[in-house]
Design a protein that fits this description.
By secondary structure, this protein is an alpha/beta fold. The chain contains 10 helices and 12 strands. It has a 7-stranded parallel beta sheet with strand order 3-2-1-4-5-6-12, sandwiched between helices. The chain has a 5-stranded mixed beta sheet with strand order 8-9-7-10-11. Helix 2 links the parallel strand 2 and strand 3. It is elongated.
């Protein structure tokens, strides 16, 4: 029997972490060996079963990040920016695979993650959905074909409790569009579009964020030309799509070696 991939989950009591734990426990490819929550969490000391509603597993939620990292082949992390950066230091020291679905990092934190990737295999995406990452690859290619006379607008819709705006997914889509055109996103990104500040320059990439209800994630990228439009969209119908992407990323990262990758790499887009 093929050896299963040992997985620990950071943010195990959250919506994403608990769904990943359930999928790993039911998998023949992966083995759940650790579930991590931050110091002070009310879930510490509980069996992960109490979070996901199954019979006891014997796997207790812990704050012992180092122990879990050392005992794992891969870490899947949907937590907070501060927590993720702290875990990065451990995965770098232990030369492990670190799958990051956390968003909302500062520039300094992004630099810390990049530094950790010199030793760890880090697969980081603002959205782990395989469909979204196929969309990212398509956007990059399409923006390279259509010149900057085509305006690019990105619509970013999430549930009303979503903390960051624009979302990591929206920024990834904008980055893909900018990359396709061979420009730096910071020089063309246009987020604050309200009131009288609607006039734009050719080549700007606009992002509008909408928040409401229980929407998991709806994203559209609009290429608006003279007399025609091209619209590419993705609609997330359940969070299991992110679980599938995270697990596939963890499996892909085994024996890959150090580096900073994304789910687009997992799908092979960056080789095309």
């Amino acid at each position: 029997m093929k050896k299963r991939i040992k997985i620990s989950i950071v943010g195990a009591a959250g919506k994403m972490g608990s769904q990943i734990a359930l999928q790993v426990l039911n998998s023949e490819i992966f083995e759940l060996v650790g579930v991590i929550e931050a110091k002070g969490s009310q879930s510490l000391g509980k069996d992960i079963a109490s979070i996901i509603g199954i019979d006891k597993t014997g796997i207790t939620i812990t704050e012992d990040s180092l122990g879990c990292v050392l005992n794992s082949d891969a870490i899947i992390d949907f937590s907070s920016p501060n927590s993720t950066v702290a875990i990065c230091e451990l995965t770098a020291q232990a030369r492990k695979v670190h799958v990051i679905g956390t968003t909302g990092f500062s520039d300094r934190q992004e630099d810390q993650i990049l530094a950790a990737s010199r030793h760890a295999t880090i697969i980081k995406s603002g959205n782990m959905s395989l469909g979204i990452n196929a969309l990212l690859g398509s956007i990059e290619k399409l923006s390279g074909v259509l010149d900057d006379s085509w305006d690019i607008e990105i619509s970013d819709m999430h549930h009303k409790h979503k903390a960051d705006s624009p979302s990591g997914t929206a920024l990834d889509l904008a980055e893909a569009a900018a990359s396709g055109r061979g420009v730096d996103l910071e020089s063309v990104k246009d987020i604050a579009r309200n009131g009288n500040a609607l006039k734009r320059k050719d080549g700007d990439i606009g992002i509008v964020s909408l928040r409401g209800g229980s929407v998991i994630g709806d994203h559209s990228v609009i290429f608006a030309g003279d007399g025609e439009r091209v619209v590419l969209s993705h609609f997330a119908e359940n969070r299991n799509i992110f679980v599938k992407g995270a697990l596939r990323s963890a499996q892909w990262g085994i024996d890959k070696g150090p580096g900073l990758f994304s789910t687009k790499d997992v799908l092979g887009f960056n080789k095309l």
